[in-house]
Design brief:
The chain has about 325 residues and is an alpha/beta fold. The chain has helices spanning about 10-20, 55, 85-100, 125-135, 155-165, 185-195, 250-260, 270-280, 290-295, 320-325, and strands at about 1-5, 25-30, 45, 65-70, 105-110, 140-145, 150, 170-175, 180, 185, 200, 220, 235-240, 245-250, 265-270. Strands 3-2-1-4-5-6-13 form a seven-stranded parallel sheet, with helices on both faces. Helix 4 (about 125-135) links the parallel strand 5 (about 105-110) and strand 6 (about 140-145). The longest helix has 20 residues, at about 85-100.
Length: about 325
């Protein structure tokens, strides 16, 4: 399959390009500056800016499928203001959908965000919700993924947590009770690949028994074109994806710093005071945080219906943040760091 990964040199993109290339697909990574990316040599690279249609349109020629991964960080205020979320997430999606239709690329997979909603209080989540609407109304064979926060090699989640929640003396808004359901990048890109390929978990008893000690991986079967089921059962589906653990910001901070052998002593900051401070930062040129980051702390980033089972995963099979960091899960408990 010829697959164009839009945003293929970012955190998720580089991992997905490697996964797809290992599965034997012909992969092209599109980004604004792809030359310096750490990608396998067999992955093609093409430069383009999703906010400029003419710069990306040609890359869609000859592709069988498109994966749209382009995303600004929700953790920081964008350079240029919050409207940049609409320029990139909504405008970029509109351009990618338009190019896919112009070149007859029917298969389209969109990475959104958990809680995406056009009526959301934050620009990031609202713009993602608007972009999802464009995809669903596109007439393409679409699939939308809405993951919680993603961790793994090259992520910003763990580093950002260390930044806003320093060790030893750790002041956190509301005591760091905001909840997340972190998903490991290795598990997530496997689900992306299965959605592209139209594969499902094998029915119980169909798979050969795994060798003792082998890594846990869902046994899968490809849905054939002439089967009673649709050619790709993931078409027209929106998947909420979360990891095996629901962790508070304070627990994530304890795990992150435990990996460095440092304790975390949380001192709660009233949410109202946090709101005043971050809203004031909105008026400071170049400030990395602002009112949107405060509003994002008002809701939890947890899947209502975790769809990992669709891809053959039990939540207990997934990689935990603690195991990725190489620390005892008990380090997340107060006083155990």
């Amino acid at each position: 399959m010829n697959v164009l990964v839009v945003g293929g040199t970012g955190f998720v993109g580089t991992h997905l390009c490697r996964e797809l290339a290992e599965r034997g697909h012909h992969v092209t990574a599109l980004s604004r500056d792809p030359d310096e990316a750490d990608l396998p040599p067999e992955v093609d690279r093409v430069a383009g800016d999703v906010t400029a249609y003419d710069s990306i349109e040609g890359a869609f020629e000859g592709q069988d499928a498109v994966v749209f991964l382009v995303s600004l960080s929700p953790l920081f205020k964008p350079s240029g203001g919050y409207d940049r979320h609409y320029d990139v997430h909504l405008g970029g999606t509109e351009n990618a959908v338009r190019a896919a239709k112009a070149h007859g690329v029917d298969r389209y997979v969109q990475m959104s965000a958990l809680g995406a909603d056009p009526d959301a209080d934050t620009a990031f989540i609202a713009a993602k919700g608007e972009a999802d609407r464009v995809v669903r109304e596109s007439g393409l064979d679409w699939t939308v993924f809405q993951p919680s926060v993603i961790f793994g090699e090259g992520d910003e989640f763990v580093g950002f947590t260390k930044l806003v929640a320093p060790p030893y003396f750790t002041p956190l808004p509301g005591g760091g009770k905001s909840e997340f359901q972190p998903i490991w990048i290795g598990d997530l890109v496997e689900m992306f690949a299965m959605a592209l390929e139209g594969t499902l978990p094998q029915e119980e008893g169909d798979a050969e028994e795994r060798e003792e000690g082998a890594a846990v991986t869902p046994a899968i079967r490809r849905v054939e074109e002439d089967a009673d089921e649709p050619a790709n059962p993931h078409v027209g589906r929106t998947y909420e994806i979360g990891g095996p653990d629901v962790l508070t910001l304070a627990e994530v901070a304890r795990l992150a710093h435990a990996a460095d052998g440092k304790p975390v002593n949380v001192y709660p900051i009233p949410m109202a005071l946090t709101g005043v401070g971050l809203k004031l930062l909105d008026s400071v040129p170049g400030a990395p945080l602002g009112a949107d980051q405060y509003r994002s702390l008002q809701f939890d980033n947890v899947a209502e219906d975790n769809d990992v089972g669709t891809f053959g995963f039990e939540e207990g099979d997934l990689t935990t943040l603690a195991s990725y960091l190489g620390v005892d899960p008990a380090a997340a408990e107060p006083g155990r760091a």
